[in-house]
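Quick note —
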Amino acid sequence: MSEMFEDREQPAGKDDFMPSLPVMVRLVEKRRETPGIVSLLFELPPADSPSFRPAQNIPGQFVMVWLPGLNEKPFVISYLTTAGFGITVMVRGNFSRRLAELKEGEMAGFRGPFGRGYSRYNNYQPEKIAILGGGCGMAPLALLAQAAPDATLIQGAPSARNLLYLERFPQQIACTEDGSYGIKGTPLQWLEGRVAEEFDVVYTCGPEPFLKAVVSLCLTKGIACQAALERYMKCAVGICGQCECDGRLVCRDGPVFDGTELAAMPSFGHFRRDAAGRRVSAAAGSPVAGCSPQPSRTCNGASPTEQ
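Predicted structure written out below.
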């Protein structure tokens, strides 16, 4: 296991520190991941930064990204080294387009990390861990795969052009719906015949109907499971209530939940609320597929609405 990340139990509803103003940091590198997705690598903030501490990030947590004069949106840290950190951005709307258009040397504001990330991966033998992601759902899983390099990493995408981090994680198993790369099919199809025999725990992130199917499969087989739930977020600290889901605040109590917690949420896999608070299908959202039955995952790990 990698020692860069601390695998610690995180009580739901508790953050290590309260946020203040975003900390401005400089963009040092841009990496084109797919035709519609770019990773932005930033310098680290000062070590004594009061509101942004990327070195404390746990895989699956999120940060708030601020573009002055525009807006603030949640994203996950998908790259983290002793020299810097990065986020992965899918261009969908005005905010994500402006963010992706940042030039090297320009700055953006950050605060966080927030919420509850993946945990207990050091409790399992690496070869008994499965990490499943699809489309941009790979971004929240990237640091987990980095922390557990001997785990089995499975990625799904519509086609070869949509696959993320192939060079970064050359050991991964790739599934494409059109068969243009790797195995033809989805990560769920790959997992169904192996989960009980080969794995003790599954960590996943992707479209919510896909997460629902993975959680159901794991619970049926008696396998531990953790999944990152996506809801619209604004404040990131449990104040505004925008991300409420069946009595839980996803920004504070999640976004990562155990399978048993998710199974107890009636809305999980069925409904969420949009930016206006309207109840909509959990399958509605992103055009990025890769996990089927329906796409909804974004690269921020927190907001399925237009960015």
